[in-house]
Amino acid sequence: MTFYTAVLFVHIVSMLGLCTALGFEVLMLFRLQRSRNIADAQVWSDLVPGLDWLVMISVVSVLASGVYLTIQIRGWGFAWLDVALVSFFAMAPLGSIFSARMRSIRRAVSNGNVTAQGEHGRFAPDRALHISLYVRITALLGIVFLMTAKPGLGGSLAIMGLSAALGLLISTSRRPEREPAP
Known about the structure:
Elements: H1 3-33, H2 38-45, H3 51-73, H4 79-111, H5 127-149, H6 153-172
Helix pairs in contact: 1-2, 1-3, 1-5, 2-4, 4-5, 4-6, 5-6
């Protein structure tokens, strides 16, 4: 195994770490919405205590390994890589919104300051959490597609634009309310 393949492995595992973190965020958000009491909300609001660390380590590893891989392939002129990098950095503010709002939910739940809201007694995270989550998921999928397809500038911009639009569309669509499980 060469150093390049080891760095490529780190890059891929770090992307998997980001995907795992997003999966946990989906689980926490949707289970929190269906919580019927403070005890349920406490379990789901702090499901993975080290989640912020997983995200930070994964982001730093993706960037560091990505820079190394880019240097090795002399990829600074590739449009797909530039668009992917800009898109990756554009995800950061959305991740910050999610983290900050989840921290405030955790504090409120641990202090018992949250009241059940909604028709079925759910704890109601706001729309910004949904937007942040879905746009980051679709943007990450768009970036993975760019890494695989390696299109030109027009194609790269179209892919990331469609990814972001899809995330917004999914996050703002109304789904029928379901009765939470007992």
